[in-house]
Structure formats: C-alpha cells, structure tokens
Amino acid sequence: MAARYQIAGSSSAEISASVETGIRTGALAPGDALPAVRALAAALAVSPATVAKAYQELRQRGLVATAGRHGTRVRPRPPVATRRAALMPPPLPGARDLSAGQPDSRLLPPLGPHLALLAAEIGAPSGYAATPVLPALAAAARDRLAADGVPAEEITVTGGALDGIERLLAAHLRPGDAVAVEDPGWANLLDLIAALGLRPIGVPVDDEGPSEPGVRAALTAGARALVVTSRAQNPTGAAVSAERAGALRTLLAGRADLLLIEDDHAAELAGVPLHPLAGATPAWAFVRSVSKPYGPDLRLAVLTGDEATVARVAGRARVGAGWVSTVLQRLVLALWQDPATTDLVRRAGESYERRRDGLVAALAALGVAAHGRTGINVWVPVPDETLAVTALRDAGWSVAPGALHRIAAAPGVRITVSSLDEADLAPLAAAVARVVRPAPAGFTA
C-alpha cells in the first residue's frame, strides 16, 4: 500500500481526509491494508493517539474496518463515490455473469402499457403531496400484508427496502449501538450498518433462518436491533420456517429494548409461506419491497409496524425527501391490480424455483454442498473463495465472493440463477465441482 499511496496529515482530521482521498481516487482499493497505528504515527511524526483517532473516525463512517490481527483495511464497499470501484474483476469476454444478484429481466412485467394508461389518467399536474401515501395504495398494501398474517394498521412507503431499513436504524439507534444481522447476510445491509457507525453482531443462518441460539447470543451481547430476512435470504436462500418463527417469537417476546426489522424483499417471488415475527417486540417494522418481483427501477417499499416506529420513519422522510413520488405509487398500484402482471410474477417465481432447485440438485449429485431454499441465489461453501472465484471465472462463470456477505461465517460463493437457462445447470454444476472440494453443509464455522 505504501508504495502506491502515501497517507499524509498532521492531525486526525487531515489523516482521515487523506485516507478518504485515497479511497475516492482508487489509490486505496477495497481490502487494502492501512499501516499499523504506531508505524504511521512514526512516519508522520505525530502521536499514536492522533492516528488512532483518525482510524476511529474512518471506522465510524464505514470507510475502513479493523479485524484483530488482520489490521485495519478499506471496507469492500466504502460509502464514498470512487473513480474506479471495481470490487470484482469483470467477467472474461463471453463469460456468464452470475454475480449481480438481480432478477431476470426477461421475467419482469413490462411497464410501458401501465405508464401509458397512467399518463392518460393522471390529470393536471399536482403540487407537493398532501399525504405521503396514496390512500388506495395503503389500502391495497394492508390487504396484501394481512393475507400473509402481517398486521398493518400503520402504513408508510420508502424508496426501497434499504432506504426503509436505514430510516428505521437512524430513528432508533445511535453510532456505536449494536445491530444483530444474519451471517452470511445482505452485503448492502452490512455496508449500511458500517456507514451509520453501528456495530454488527453476526447471527448464524441455516435453511430455516437465523438460529435461535445465535439470536440469543446477540441479545446477550447487547444488540439494540435485529434484522431478519423473512424469505429468499441473500445470499443463502434461507426462509424463516414456522417452527423457527415460533422459537424466535418466544425469545423476543416483550423485549422493549430491541427494534425488530423484517425484510420481505422477495415477496410474491418467494414461493414459500410467510411466517412473520411482526409484533413480537413492542418496537417492530416489516418492510416489503416491490423491486424484485416488479423491477429494480421501482424504488418503493411498503413499511408497516407499531404506531411509534412508523411515525418516526414517516417523520424523518417528511423533513428529508418528503415523500415517495405519487406517480411511482400509482404505477405500483396499477401493477398490483393487473391480473396479467400477477400471473407473470407467479410464473417468474416458478421459473426461479426450477433453476435454483435444479442447480442445488445437480451440485448435490456431484458431491458439492449447496443451499438455496428460496429466491434467486445459491450459496456454495468453499475452502478458499479466491481460488474458487478465480477458477470459475477462468472456466467462463463469474460468481460473487462470499467475503462481501460475511462477518464470521465460513467462506462461500454466491451464484445468482436468474440469468441461467435450465440447459446451463449441468455444465455450471460440473464447473463448480471441478474447483470446489466438498465442504461442510453449514453456513458458519
């Protein structure tokens, strides 16, 4: 690192700004190690306390992470715009990119016809929104959530699932507070927690969701919030089972000191029943995005919860962005009400299920453990992520390294099935089997 970029500064603010400049320009890449505190202090002729304070500021802003003997390193995805921020080498020419984690664009509902109808019906331009949520959208959302057993008296909308989770965490927690998250888990959420200056506590995950002993340990360690993916967990495909939901509800009952957040991002695509935890704690929220079933460009999520929690989220939105576009809300409502779109989403879910289950079965037949109960991703435990990702890339398949998703979980790779055709499953499984030795079935060490 020192040969490529020299950190400068005589104060903690100047040192942290210098590191940020290195990250922004790409001179400091994700994963690069920063000098030890005493070594940098000696090089800059400042006290070790000055460097330690600079590193602390960078950690609180989510730019770097400290991991014991591994020292302080640039986070995989630091929250700062960079000139060149490639986290993974691009796929080789002609290679299949299975790393993106996005839905199959061929199975997304067309927006053009609904936009045309909306344009004809929308009427005269409106002013600033009088209410943040259209009453018709709120009513439809309540019905859809109630059908899945989620109480939804209070409703607001946010600019997607991550926006909703960010507002929830910011409204309830303060920098330094601990958040219990699935491990392995959603990379964007881990990055968000770091950017908010919060402290993640990893909770082991199996096919039925976060483990009850793991959640118990996180609560004992002082977690102020718990984030649970209801179905189609990213990256493992886990879904909270009825038995696991019962155990977690018992464990969480009455925890007035804990904010419970459920993320049901896959919604109609999940293909398994929802077993919600909603209401297990006094402070809770359930977030359901429309991006996976209806299109990533539809940045809208429905958020319900207890009255005080929803009021906090709506209040923070009112003094910031204001509201989610009513044009977007009308478009989502039109998609919900269209039988043809409902049928297309159903068929998309069935297609993902065939591809996901087919890949897991093909890998199992070759002696490779893999997980993918729901959703669009398959998680494959591996002994060495770098070797696996590189070898698969050389074989024509680009997959995501598990390091983006892990805190303390064992290594793995994430394979997104949404761009695969069923004919691809056998050759992909064979390629994985050639480079991945059989690994233990669990997700954690």
Describe this structure in words.
By secondary structure, this protein is an alpha/beta fold. 39% of the residues lie in helices and 15% in strands. The chain contains 15 helices and 15 strands. An eight-stranded mixed beta sheet has the order 4-11-10-9-8-5-6-7, with helices on both faces. Strands 12-15-14 form a three-stranded antiparallel beta sheet, covered by helices on one side. Strands 1-2 form a two-stranded antiparallel sheet. α2 (37-44) crosses α3 (48-60). It is globular and about 65 Å long.
Task: Detail the topology: elements first, then pairings.
Blueprint: H1 12-25, H2 37-44, H3 48-60, E1 64-66, E2 72-74, E3 96-97, H4 112-121, H5 135-146, E4 155-158, H6 161-172, E5 178-183, H7 187-195, E6 199-206, E7 209-210, H8 212-220, E8 223-229, H9 242-252, E9 259-263, E10 283-289, H10 291-294, E11 301-305, H11 307-318, H12 326-337, H13 339-365, E12 377-381, H14 385-394, E13 397-398, E14 400-401, E15 412-416, H15 425-435
Parallel strand pairs: 3-13, 5-6, 5-8, 8-9, 9-10
Antiparallel strand pairs: 1-2, 4-11, 6-7, 10-11, 12-15, 14-15
Helix pairs in contact: 1-3, 2-3, 6-11, 13-15
In short:
It is built from 15 helices and 15 strands. With 445 residues, it is of the alpha/beta class. Strand 6 and strand 7 form a beta hairpin.
Features:
445 residues; alpha/beta; 3-stranded antiparallel sheet; 8-stranded mixed sheet; 15% strand; 15 helices
In total, how many beta strands? 15
Q: Give the helices and strands as they follow along the chain.
A: HHHEEEHHEHEHEEHEHEEHEHHHEHEEEH
Share of β-strand residues: 5-15%
* Shape estimate: globular
Low-confidence stretches: none
The residue fraction in helices comes out at 25-40%
Number of helices, counting only DSSP H or I runs of 4 residues or more: 15
Average pLDDT, rounded to a whole number, is 90
